[in-house]
Amino acid sequence: MGVYHHGERTVQQRAGLNDHAGFTAAAIRNEIPDVAAEFLSRQPMLVVGAADTDGAIWASLLTGAPGFVTATGPTGLTIDAVPPDGDPLHDVLARPAHVGMIAVEPATRRRMRMNGKARPVAGGLHVDLDQVFANCPKYIQQRRPTPAPSVHGPAAPPWQGTELTPTQLALVEAADTFFIATADRAGNADASHRGGSPGFLQALTPTRLCWPDYVGNAMFATLGNIEVDPRAGLLLPDWDTGAVLQLTGTAAVDWDPGRAAAVPGAQRIVDFTIDRIVQIDRASPLRWTAPAYSRFNPPAPTGREEERP
What we know:
seven-stranded antiparallel β-sheet, mainly beta, eight-stranded antiparallel β-sheet
């Protein structure tokens, strides 16, 4: 249980799963197994979470030809990519920083999370890892990359704002996948995946979102971080166009069983208040096939929640 910090242990206890902590802790290591190194070598994308200079948490998407993520020894990782100009983490990762990372392979519904300390190297990053662990395939929609159109072009200048536009609201409401970055009190970052049926992520207003927290791996790394530091960042990829929508703000877990009972599959509800928004069109050269939804996805909520005070 020593791998878990106070926030994670608090959430595990409140969820009634603290007896599982010893079992799940055994899955967290600081070395990359050979099978995981091989998995990473095939990936064309990696999500990275970190705090900016103001302490706001962001999640960014890195892409490259398979092999751009390479295990360099049991506890090292080299990434031959950096966030594009205008990305909130572009300047942050130009110097040493705590990062959380997740590699997801939608075609096989496999994912791997890694946390550590990044430092810049020529053309990319080197990360000394503190934590390495895999998660189950639940809620991952199956997709396969397809050739990018020849008119792709470089990433567009970022759009910035504080409220979601109608087009962005439509992307949120149609999302079946997003990524969330958080950090503990010491600044150790984490990046995780959230998936569900389209509509599981709801926009209550242009600055407030919520989503159900489904049964997971009982580690509660994300909710544990939110317990001690509410700052969080969301990344919504547009699988069809290569755009990314990045949100930073604060998250809170609502443990009201009555509210969760109104949402299929929800164990609890997470609320998110947006502080800032960055949208970068053509941020990724990747395009993906239409999804085959996970059989674990509960139905999306049938009605929109009212805004909560």
